[in-house]
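Q: What structure does this chain adopt?
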Amino acid sequence: MADLDAPLPTFALLARFPVQQADEPSAVEVVRSLLRAADEPFEDVTVEREDAPGTYYVMARFVLSSLDGETAVRGLFETLREAGLDPDEVWLDAQVA
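A:
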């Protein structure tokens, strides 16, 4: 029989947002502001790359507990979309606990 008091595994997830801004710091701040306004608990926000002049792909890192990695990814993607945010991709980075 499974231990019902066992903690759920914890996963690090990454969500990527395309952002149009004049520079990298502005792109990062836009994503941070959107996540804070939506009350989404993120750990870090960084620029992955510049796609074209003024278009940045900004990644936000989340650490969440879930039944498994696939459920965590689907859950975060839907939660972000329901909050009015539109990540182009969400993926599992690592299981951390």
